[in-house]
Amino acid sequence: MKFYGICVKDNFLGPQLGDRVLEEVEVLNRSGKFRGGQLVSQKSIPSSSIRGDQIAWVEGRQSVCGSIGALMAHIDEAVMYSAANGQLGDCVINGRTKAMVACYPGNGAGYVRHVDNPNGDGRCITCIYYLNKNWDVKKQGGLLQIYPEGKNVVANIEPLFDRLLIFWSDRRNPHEVKPAYATRYAITVWYFDAKERAEAKEKYRLATGQKGVQVPVTQNSKT
C-alpha cells in the first residue's frame, strides 16, 4: 500500500469458506436478486455504456448469506489490522458500506476506466474479493487494470478465486474492468475515513444510494 496503493492477498479465506461464499453468490444470481449497476455521476449517460455488471447489496446478517457475512468479518479484521499497523496512513476507519456483490454475465461486459471516490465522499479503501475458479484471462478476459497515479506502471489483477484486492478509493487509483467473456463474480466493500466522511457530510458530497450507507465494522470478539 505504501508504494503503489495496492495490496493483493491470495488464498484469503481458504477453499472451504470460499466455496460456501461462491455458493451463496450463485444462489443470489439464480434467484434474480441482481440489478444493473448504477452510476453516482454521469446520470445523463446510460449506465450500460459505462458498466455492464449486475449487482446486489448484502449486509451479511441474513441466514442465506452467512458465509458472505463471514467474509466481511475477515475483511474487517484485515483492514483494521492494517490501520492499526500504520499501513493505511492517516486514515481512521469508522465504518464501511454493505457488500456489493457483482456479476459480469460474460457477454463482453466490463467497466470503463473510473475512480471509485473522485469527489471526497468519505470512502478511502476499496476491497474486492474474487470468486472465479480456473479463470484464464487470455480466454475469458475480465482483467482488472489499475493505473497508480504518478507511477509509470499498470497493475494487472486477475480475478482469481479466493483473492482479495485492496487499494485506495480516491483519485490515486483509476481502474477499469476489461470485457469478460464468462460469468465473473466479485464482492466489493468500501471503508470510510472518519475525517473525510465528516467533511463530506458538511459539504453534501456524500455518495448517493447504497454506496452512501454506512454500517459498523465487525467487532473482533477475541479478548
Automatic annotation (TrEMBL):
Compartment(s): Nucleus
Domain Fe2OG dioxygenase: 95-193
GO molecular function: ferrous iron binding; hypoxia-inducible factor-proline dioxygenase activity; L-ascorbic acid binding
UniProt GO cellular component terms: cytoplasm; nucleus
Enzyme Commission designation: 1.14.11.29
Primary site of residence: nucleus
Cofactor: L-ascorbate
A Pfam family of this chain: 2OG-FeII_Oxy_3
Keywords assigned: Dioxygenase, Iron, Metal-binding, Nucleus, Oxidoreductase, Vitamin C
Major enzyme class: oxidoreductase
Domain of life, per lineage: Eukaryota
Reaction catalysed by this enzyme: L-prolyl-[hypoxia-inducible factor alpha subunit] + 2-oxoglutarate + O2 = trans-4-hydroxy-L-prolyl-[hypoxia-inducible factor alpha subunit] + succinate + CO2
InterPro entries, per database record: HIF_prolyl_hydroxylases, Oxoglu/Fe-dep_dioxygenase_dom, Pro_4_hyd_alph, Pro_4_hyd_alph_FE2OG_OXY
GO biological process, one term: cellular response to hypoxia
Protein name listed in UniProt: hypoxia-inducible factor-proline dioxygenase
Organism: Lates japonicus
